[in-house]
What we know:
Helix 1 runs antiparallel to helix 3 and helix 9 runs antiparallel to helix 10. The protein is an alpha+beta fold. It has 3 domains: 285 residues, Amidase signature (AS) enzymes (Alpha-Beta Complex); 195 residues, no CATH class; 47 residues, no CATH class. The chain has an 11-stranded mixed sheet with strand order 3-6-4-9-11-10-16-19-15-12-13, with helices on both faces. A two-stranded antiparallel sheet has the order 1-2. The protein is 30% helix and 14% strand.
Amino acid sequence: MARQLTSVALVELYLKRIKAYNGVCVSEPMGILGPITTIPHAGQINALSTLNLRPASRKAWGFDDRKARSMTDPVDDDTHMPDALEVAAAQDQQFQRTGRLVGPLHGVVMAIKDQFDTFDMRTTSGADAFYANDRPPEDATFVKRLRAAGAIILAKANLAEYATDGARSSFGGTLCNPYDTEREPGMSSAGSATAVAANLVTCAIGEETVVSIRWPASVNSLVGLAPTEELVSRKGMMGTGLSMRTGPICRNVQDAAAVLDVIAGYDPKDELTVFNVGRGPAQTYASFATARRLDGVRIGVVREYMSRKLFSQADDESIGIVEHAIDQLRGLGATIVDPGPEGALFQDCISRLGPELLNSAFTRGHPDLFPVDAAGHPLSDQTATLLDMHFDPTRVPPGFSLRSLRTPAVPGESKYLMNQYLRERGDTNIRSMADLIAKARFYADPNFPDRKRILEAAERDTALDTSARLQSRFALQNLFLQCMQEQRLDALVSPMSTVPPRKLTAPREPNANGRSPIGWPLFGQQGFPLITVPAGFTTQVWDRERDAGGGTRLVGPVRAAMPVGVDFIARPFDEALLLRIASAFEAATRHRRPPPEFGPLPDEP
Length: 605
């Protein structure tokens, strides 16, 4: 150990960067809740909404009251809640006294997405809701593990409110991409990612339901790991769900692996984690993140997600970047199983097994082949038709492919789980989702999702039904595992997304033949772990603008160097292989570049 930097000095270095770069990044002529306009080269990203500083320290650093640890405890003098500088000082004293590190993450400075509970900082999932006590009674399970390992929790990361779409929250405001402050920074974990990209923290924790770890990582030139859902506890997450995962966002694979080593494992307070008992690797995850070759690893190319013919000009350059990444994997010794441009890795397998495994969902999706009466009763023998397809897959409709498969919604899930969380939290003012609707302020801007309307729609649910989601998850996991096994594939490679991030106030690129502009969620939502690694940068992008007829049109190209990520996908609980592939690719390519407008400060080491 070089003993050149103390934990306190490191925290102070990060605070200087936060002071320099974490300001408001858009124009807000009507205040934080009104419509916004973008600012080119704003030099700010608004990534962190709350700082772990006591009032005196916060004021001494020049941070305003909005960054306070709590809005409901302005005194904030509880000695059992040390702030980040006090934690760092205690670490320094212990190290000076014993010569030993507190744990494997000693001095690692982190931000936590505001969706997760921190007992010392306000937790509202980005909402400007009037809790009696805006601090939850205890940390999320993984936060406890991070602290015990020596991590210093410096901040809560801003997010898309309630972890949905749109880079904005009512409390924290609008987030911006450090590579172009007029563009989207990713999905709901964007504050976590942009804070890491601009070097305001070492690593951050995100959450993914759709692509909310991987897309922010991809468009911020970072490593984002969305692990097997059952691997990391969700206890202490506001609004958990059957597709939600917790994972690290870091600047390199080694750091992400080190964080995963700490947060992974069984938690009796999250029943899903029982599935990971006995399924971890014999060695640490970090030990797999040092690979340099991939000899003997068979990787399948998910060409279904790389079609130039089915998508648009907006996708073209990103597809080319991922094709180059595939060549680089081949150069590392991996055996690449590639159906070729416009090919389909899994189509034969999906046509043969999909109708049977997905059965009722498949028949409902093809009413022309499986007609029903007004009451929904079959007008023909559906089992006979399914049997005919089983023995002759050419009868399967041609549009049935990997791109057409969907993860069904769970009626009542949002309301049930949010109310469960709030009841366990025990706040005396915010007790239910109905209270969140009635006792909060919401932004109003047509460029971003209407948070109040989304909550009101969820509040109308009166039943919880997980049956279709659980059946679909089992069926799709079975299907994908079989498809991989038939081709003896160890892992898959895919674009994370093929559409660069839009301007914050511009229309989003529409879906095209199953392609979503924000990326591909299907494998992760069935429990498969994925990791996104930087693959390069665009030279130009195509944008959407509104036309006179009320629609949109594609315009461009516009010169823009925006990050592009590549996804690696493995079987559930095979994070060790993912880290091996990702680290070898990272070491050989070194595609990550920091955002040029957020560089070192004067006198920064």
